[in-house]
Hints:
Blueprint: H1 3-34, H2 37-58, H3 61-72, H4 76-101, H5 104-111, H6 121-147, H7 151-174, H8 179-202, H9 212-246, H10 249-262, H11 265-286, H12 291-322, H13 331-344, H14 350-355, H15 360-380, H16 388-415, H17 421-431, H18 434-439, H19 446-463, H20 466-484
Helix pairs in contact: 1-7, 1-11, 1-20, 2-6, 2-8, 2-9, 2-10, 3-4, 3-6, 3-9, 4-6, 4-9, 6-8, 7-8, 9-10, 9-15, 9-16, 10-13, 11-12, 12-13, 12-17, 12-19, 13-16, 15-16
Amino acid sequence: MDNKNLLKGTMVYSLMNLVTKMGSFIFLPIITRLLTQEEFGIVGTLGPITSLFTVILGLGLYNAQMKKYVDLKDSEDEFGSYMFSSTMIIVVFNVLTYIFLFTPFAQKMFSYIVDLSKVSYYPLIIVSILIATTNAFNNLSTTLFRMKRMYMKVAIGSVVSLFTTYILAIYFIKYLKWGVFGNQFANLIALLIVFLYYFKDYFGKFKFKMNLNYVKYSLRNGLPLIFIELTDQVVNLSDRLVLAKFVSLAVVGGYTLAFTGGRVLSVVTGSFVNSWTPEFYEAMKADKTNPKITKSVENFIAIISFACVIAQLFAPEGIKIIFPASYHQAINYMALILAGIVVQALFCLDYFFHFHEDSIYIFYFTMFAMIFNLAGNIIFIPRYPEIGPIIAAWTTLLAFLFRAIMEMVIIRKKYKISFNYKKLFLYLIIVVNPVIFYLSNSNISWMKFGLKIIYLAIVTKLLVNREVYNKIMNLVNGIKRKIIK
Length: 485
């Protein structure tokens, strides 16, 4: 394992994630002013549909491609034949899917998921699924580029997609008056541009020789991944679909804004997980009982919790300054969504199971989280629609929390590895408690601002020890060096 390449890749992806997530946050106030709250809610409803179909239409074949590249990377002809064979599977499957989608039965099925009188099947849902198809092909390309360490290729593609999407969306919505369709069509065009940018280095390497053994290999190694990924997506995205079905699209608009803003915190999560993973594998190989392994997880959660508290405390001011008044309702559930992202960061525990080749446990944990989240939303949101977004945020947080607890229990019993549970519980209390919810509500005053500063000072004292401080500074300095370079 080349640590230099790992570090380089981590820094490129961290910077890319920072640019794309912050870019989205910068463009978001413009989009929310161009679209009504209900229209933005439709955009938020279409997002989960695109994400789910990206998983389905890609058939998980990018995972099989990763494995096969290691075996065939020294033979361009054979790997070119493999790429062609696996891609043809996706082409055929997508064609069959679209034949089905243009039937009345497919439209009827979607009517049970969303209100087609408000979210039109033609063209909105069809265009959203076209976006998913393009995503599926682009995922194949980016997976190969990562394996080949073509880091900048992937980073440039992501940045091009981001800016093209928003620039075109602003033009289509403001000047052509295309509304939600303009937003979706801009997204599709941006992804097609990225597809063309990737074309030569991926599709240009095809050897047009179909191999049935490669087809079988791809399906055998790709299909099992679909179900695991779908369960993850359902936990993350089902809340918006349920809110759209049982509450209103305007509420979905506010929830989508809060969710999108909360995802900025995932920049910190992703950067640390990417940096931590190689350290984890090396430490586990050397000594599975090394206390530094569990301590690194605890420090990681401390850093995420600290970033979360800052976001929770000052998000109300930010939302009121940046976004239209109709979106200020998002303040009421922003703190919960941010706390949920902290708990979700414990997905790093998955690597203990990956290391011991017990990944089947992850499937069980994810299934439980999906069922808990979906059942909670379907049972309680229709009964209490006035607090639907709060319920959705709580079910997501609790689903990830119970998943993490189960993982820790199994890790302790099966691998004899324990964490400082009191410390982790303290971190949870810091981001989920009545005080933080009071300080982060929509009522803003100078007195409350002073209380926020006091709360932040207390949290800083509790969370930021010298080791955590050094890790934060290493990440910041690494990003600064990458920018200067």
